[in-house]
Amino acid sequence: MARDVRQVVAGLLTGSMLIMLCNMVKRDHFDPIYVIAGAVVVAKYLGATLVLPEIRGTKTEHKRQFGDIYDIKRFMTSLDGTVQVVKDPPMEASKVNITNIKVPFMVTKDFTASKIQPIFKAKGNLMLSIDLSSSTIAKAKEMIKKENVKMDPNACLAIFDSLELQQELNQLVSSMIGTLRSLSYKTNGQFVAVDLKVESLGNLCKGNVIKTKDCFDAKEIGEFLKKIGYQRHTTIYLTQSGWHRSLDDFRKIFPNTFTKDAIIPAYEKAKYQLTKSSEFEKVIDFQICTQADVFVPTISNLFYTNVVAKRIASGKTEVLDPTQKASASSAADAAVDYVSPYISKKSHWAYSCFC
Known about the structure:
This protein is of the alpha/beta class. It contains 15 helices and 11 strands. Strands 1, 2, 3, 4, 5, 6 and 7 form a 7-stranded mixed β-sheet that branches. It has a 4-stranded parallel β-sheet with strand order 10-9-8-11.
């Protein structure tokens, strides 16, 4: 059976070489954090060399070199002494027979030792794959919701110490955040980032005759923010690509609402081809949401989990989840009633990296 390249992240183990190709899944706002972390874990316990990943999008032409997005020097030096990293695979890698092997979403030392290492020794040349199919992602979501989930320390190193944006992209994100802060003069430069994508919310709510607490439209998110105390002049950043008419009601509540298209310089938009490639959009959204003063997720997905991980690492724990409420009998609604359980219960796996 042919494999869907949108659902698989592949890597090659040849001799002592590990090559990882990272894939971003558009429909789940996925970024390569777990994939790169998994590659580092496997390479560490196999004693293999890690070749810089290639980042693939949902379409064949959406392919980026690792250095297009991340700082290569930072990645290599931060892993020095843990995993050997090289920029390119050896020429002979293209000439060998390769055996495919799949690994779980959060690969562990025990799994590597019992399942991967014997095959690695016997075959010598392995293609390492991390399945990102819908069913696997659903299982992953349930796994990371559980309390006391602990991340492998080598994965922690990869996630929090090795992945930094390359200089030009980092400057662009900093400029966009600076613009948002300058537009927030009535709130001392503070702004709120809301992960709100019309298509994603529409798919979640589709077919729900009676809406559940997990299903909101843009207007309801606006009303939620107003209810918990945010003033009309609050600056809001939405992860929506471009403007959609369904956001008009949200803007009536918060006129100072912007998407990336409104705050990115035109020449930068053309340079990063934001209208043609979603990979840079996701990187920009991720960075702005991790650095905003407050983050509000509207869907429980891996983007939410990953943003919170980075916010925990930086001490920005202001995360408000509209689906939560601390006390059903609370007489008044306040922001404190909706603190994400990742924060209030310290149930996020990121806390295991900093204990």
